[in-house]
Design goal:
Helices cover about 35% and strands about 15% of the residues. The chain has 6 helices and 8 strands. It is globular and about 40 Å long. Keywords: ATP-binding, Coiled coil, Magnesium, Metal-binding, Nucleotide-binding.
Length: about 200
């Protein structure tokens, strides 16, 4: 499959997946999110991780607030994405209160302001685990993002700079699971994809 064909296939799939997620009720999203988050928190790999990156969820994504609360209770170090132009970094979040006070971007997601000096994960020792958002996933770890490549680039930078690959975990509503996904070698496969379905 040529790069152009892959990009076209991804575009079609993104539209389809957005429709599928939009058809879910808020109640279904909440029920599935709770079950998915509980599974993550029970994982040995999660328990042994100290430095964790978590996305702040939009309404169309598995809700991550429960992960944040547990992270702070367990005194783990929490990092969240900050998008500036074509670049994304992962900056330190200190508490739930800190999260509540973050400004909202034009994409309607909360993130620290550009001039807000915060510890950046790569420059202070890397990450043990990254919770990776996406539009579509396969059960064996393929992921379809929103098309900007932020996470793939950041993960590559983590590996090159810190000389170790963080554990990559995707959280997926059942409507986001696909049998297969068009990917290129730039697309980083995930180590685990957690769904609300019984294992």
């Amino acid at each position: 499959m040529s790069q152009m064909a892959v990009n076209e296939a991804k575009k079609v799939l993104r539209r389809e997946l957005k429709k599928r997620i939009a058809a879910m009720t808020d109640e279904a999203k909440l029920t599935e999110s709770t079950s998915i988050v509980n599974k993550l928190l029970r994982m040995e790999e999660y328990k042994s991780s100290k430095r964790i990156s978590v996305y702040l969820s939009m309404s169309s994504e598995v809700q991550t607030e429960g992960i944040l609360k547990e992270l702070f209770q367990a005194k783990k170090e929490c990092f969240i994405p900050r998008y500036i132009g074509l670049n994304m970094d992962m900056v330190k979040l200190h508490s739930m209160e800190d999260m509540m006070s973050l400004p909202v971007t034009s994409w309607n997601i909360q993130q620290p302001a550009e001039d807000d000096e915060r510890e950046e994960a790569i420059s202070s020792g890397g990450l043990d685990l990254i919770v990776v958002p996406g539009l579509g996933f396969t059960k064996n770890g393929l992921r379809l993002g929103r098309g900007k490549g932020y996470y793939d680039s950041y993960i590559m930078k983590c590996i090159q700079t810190c000389k170790k690959k963080p554990l990559l975990i995707g959280l997926a509503f059942s409507s986001q699971i696909c049998d297969d996904l068009p990917v290129t070698e730039r697309d980083m496969p995930l180590d685990h994809v957690i769904t609300s379905e019984p294992d």
